Amino acid sequence: MPARRFFVTTALPYANGHFHIGHIMEYIQADVWVRTQRLLGHEVHFVGADDAHGAPIMIAAEKAGKTPQQFVADIAAGRAAYLDGFHIRFDNWHSTDAPENHELAQAIYRALKAGGLIERRTIEQFYDPVKGMFLPDRYIKG
Q: For 11, which DSSP code?
């Protein structure tokens, strides 16, 4: 069988809490599959990232009295011990808040817009003038 090329990732750990057995179980399964494919002579790129965006992160950071970036950084700092302890080896680990990700997301958006695949719509959304932000559904009660 000719060598194949694979791009493998796992669900990004939503950094609104510390790593847990669910993360490790998925990483171990993916790592075993990646190593098997490499032993079979295939080219594999195994990547992951910290998900640094979303309402749960905003809420958890606010409760902890931190910025979302600091909150995610504190959680990410504990990742290496878990991965190293289980001998899990990603080829690249990044963050959804990294400049490279911002540039890539913007490039994808611009390409979609240039291709006529982006549609503008007016929607109604709850707004908090004190926080100066539109409210995610998790902030809406009642």
A: P
CB 97 within 8 A of CB 125: no
Instruction: List the CATH number of the domain containing 100.
Output: 3.40.50.620
Count of the separate structural domains present in the chain: 1
Burial class (CB in 10 A: 0-12, 13-18, 19+), 33: middle
Q: Are 19 and 79 in contact (CB under 8 A)?
A: yes
Query: Tens of pLDDT along the chain (142 residues)?
Result: 679 999 999 988 776 667 788 888 999 999 999 999 999 999 999 999 888 888 888 888 888 999 988 988 888 888 888 888 899 999 998 888 889 989 999 999 999 999 999 999 999 999 989 988 888 877 787 7
